[in-house]
Amino acid sequence: MSAMIVLLVGLVLMALGYFIYSKFIAEKIFRLDPDYRTPAHEFEDGIDFVPTNKFVLWGHHFTSVAGAAPIVGPAIAIIWGWAPAFAWVVLGTIFFAGVHDTGAIWASVRNKARSVGSLTGDVVGKRARSIFMIVIFLVLLMVNAVFAVVIARLMMNFPTAVVPVWGAIIVALIIGQCIYRRILSLPVVSIIGVVALYALILAGPSVPLQMPAEVMPGVTGNAAWIVLLFVYAAIASVLPVWVLLQPRDYINGLQLFVGLIILYGAIIVLNPTMVAPMYNNDVPAGTPSLVPLLFVTIACGAISGFHGLVSSGTTSKQLNREPDARFVGYFGAIGEGGLALAAILVASAGFASLADWQAMYSAFGQGGVTAFVEGGAYVIHNGLGVPEVTAATLLTVMAALFAGTTMDTGLRLQRYIFQEWGEIYNQQWMKKPLIATLLAVGTCMLLAFGAGADGSGGMLIWPLFGTTNQLLAGLTLLVITVMLVRLRRPMWYTLAPLCFLLLMTVIALIFQLRTFYEQGNWFLLGLDLVVLVASILVALECGASLKRHRAEVAAESKGV
Asked: What is the count of structural domains for the chain?
């Protein structure tokens, strides 16, 4: 099968999803109102609540939700064959992720920019809120701790990426001043920012910076990078969003679009064959069943609960006009779907032969970022003639910058969670930004270094990320669905994805229980049981809440 044909089919379907389906969802279901006063205007403070140009906000939202997950998940999932991964990414983006992300922004904006976890108490019930807040905290803890490991390993393995990754922060600080103080127009700033980023990427191979394997006795280079990343993320999370978060995310989003154009262009010029099987009937021993694991292995790129946290955590506080939610939320999901599609293509067609592909995918969990970087570099080099080391640096920087922007936003969101807990339980000290930030960093560092000095402790609970993340997406869809029922609007466009996600999550958790039991991994077995019980409680709460609210609506319509 031609990779170019697969690419064009995927892009056309996603484009139709945006121009047709998202328009219907925005106008007929959510009924986004251009005259509605958004929280960004109502509570404008120049720090968290800042009315923002929709293109700049799209850059923040997209790069925050993307991270490394839409690369890692699809690049692992093609072990079952490229067709199932392709179908889930395309259909999931159109009918699941876009609706979920737009709906989460809408729900939050209509409730004074409160997070979906916080407003669950009003919309669904206090029991659901308690479950939701715990699940949110677990997801953020995993994302922040693990992405620090991912970025650290990328910089250890690809020292040519160090200068571009850290140099991007300086570029973002300058861009932020130019945008906020209106020193230059947005198009000019955009061009300067992208040129500066790619200049750093070109310079990277000439000035590789290798962290020593052991910085000091007992402290590895990997651990040193992790500490530096958390120090940076802590500072970034308390700065006003326009100083670093918005401009960094915006230019990273532009950089990704240019990177995808390069990658897509190389695929069209080279037109490689999909050497990976369309459906793999000969998976390695120990590979779990495609159903339901496909739907939790590929989360970002199809639907992800983390998106709901960003949508209702930072994005809703910066939305200038309510109709912007369609562009920011749905098109943000399209952008991530496009990145996941690229990961599928290069991890399926970026190898010289089926034997080379099978060598990369010798066991479940293999591939990931490595397959994306190596496969993508192969395609760019052979399609456009770019030196492989430069192409590999480009793709490594893309992965690291996205993981970094997700970590920036994730730590800020974790700070919001502590502050919301302070509000809910009347703990004034916890509502202070500095204390909440220290609590967020402290818990992440505890997880990262609790299992050893190398800082990779977050990887211990990462196997549960997919199921926990999809449970979170189900909870977000539950809140949106109940709001639609209250407003007497069609609910099936959110209820159908909700039911599917809860079913796949529960089945996946049961499958994982058996795996952890056979491995004798009692720690993960216990956590799996907790998440499984939470999933069942959410399903029950979902049914009870919908039944209750539908009865209330029916009673009101009869005048009772």
From this structure: 1
